[in-house]
Amino acid sequence: MMLKKLCCFVWLVLYHLLLPAFVSSKDHGNPANDLVEIINENRTALKLPKLNDSPGLGCMALQYVELCKDNCTGNRAVNCKPPEDDFTEVFAPNCGVELPTFGTITGHIVGCESKYLQPSEAFSHVIIKDNKALSLLRNKSHKEVGVGLVGFHKGPFFWCILFSDGQTNSTFVLEDRGKGIKQKTGCYSGSTFPCSYCAWSFHSIL
Ligand SMILES: *[C@@H]1O[C@H](CO)[C@@H](O)[C@H](O)[C@H]1NC(C)=O
Ligand SMILES: *[C@@H]1O[C@H](CO)[C@@H](O)[C@H](O)[C@H]1NC(C)=O
Ligand SMILES: *[C@@H]1O[C@H](CO)[C@@H](O)[C@H](O)[C@H]1NC(C)=O
Ligand SMILES: *[C@@H]1O[C@H](CO)[C@@H](O)[C@H](O)[C@H]1NC(C)=O
Asked: What is the C-alpha to C-alpha distance for residues 99 and 29, in angstroms, rounded to an integer?
């Protein structure tokens, strides 16, 4: 009982510490875009070319993690393997990615955490958590990147990064520039919609 009360107290303190940061990230814009910037800073520090932000890839990254919402393991890893075909049969149509422009996905990174993390923390603790992820980030084949993130009611937060070797503006093109996407929750990079926080409840921010 005592422990439970203490936990509640810690949670309340955390909530008050985190909320302003959370809201300022909201004012500032989209944490998925911040992650694209962080990814590019990390690459350009090694003189690797910058990756173009692809809203089509970002939207599919968000779809990917929405599908994996029940599969966060304790270890910040996501135990989830959507069938390959889901990309072309589910994610792309849901996003309005024009199928003839569907390119090659050269890598993906997925991670989860029980609470919201600021983009730089999410990058170093959840996304690039081992050397395998770091070498994927630094692969010379990538030309484009998309980031999706989402948090669930009382549940964990998920991040997904998709890379592609496609040419800018000609792969993963969104119909009508993405105006037709029915985004219920979460954020993706390059989106014209603001992040939707309705599923990011009081509990999931903690
Ligand atoms: C999520 O985990 C469950 C239980 O382990 C598994 O049956 C399911 O296939 C997983 N979902 C995906 C999309 O991989
Ligand atoms: C980089 O990615 C490409 C495409 O997925 C792959 O064929 C290649 O082996 C990767 N290179 C390294 C150094 O991992
Ligand atoms: C790139 O990210 C890795 C993993 O977080 C980190 O160890 C490294 O210092 C970063 N490099 C730069 C230049 O920020
Ligand atoms: C891609 O499209 C954007 C916006 O339409 C444009 O500013 C940019 O120059 C284009 N890039 C290439 C490589 O065509």
From this structure: 29
Ligand 4 atom with the shortest distance to the CA of 170: 14
Q: Is residue 156 within 8 Å of residue 206, measured between CB atoms?
A: no
Nearest CA to ligand 2 atom 1: 139
In sequence order, which residues have a C-beta less than 8 Å from that of residue 175 and are 6 or more positions away?
A: 96, 97, 98
Task: Kindly provide the b/e burial profile for residues 39-77, where b requires at least 16 CB atoms within 10 angstroms of the residue's own CB.
Answer: bbebbeeeeeeebbbbbbbbbbbbbbbbbbbebbeeebe
Question: Is the CB of residue 174 less than 8 Å from the CB of residue 181?
Answer: yes
Contacts of 179 (CB under 8 A, 6+ apart): 192
* Helices 2-28 and 31-44: angle between axes, nearest 10 degrees: 80
- Atom 12 (ligand 2): residue with closest C-alpha? 139
pTM over 0.85: no
With a Cβ cut-off of 6 Å, ligand 4 is lined by: 168-169
Q: How far apart are CA 75 and CA 26, in angstroms?
A: 27
Cβ proximity of 28 and 118 under 8 Å: no
For the chain, domain boundaries: 54-104+111-189
pLDDT of 121 above 50 = yes
Cα–Cα distance, 136 to 128 (Å, whole number): 9
Instruction: With a cut of 70, say whether residue 188 has pLDDT above it.
Output: yes
Helices (H) then strands (E): counts for the chain: 8, 5
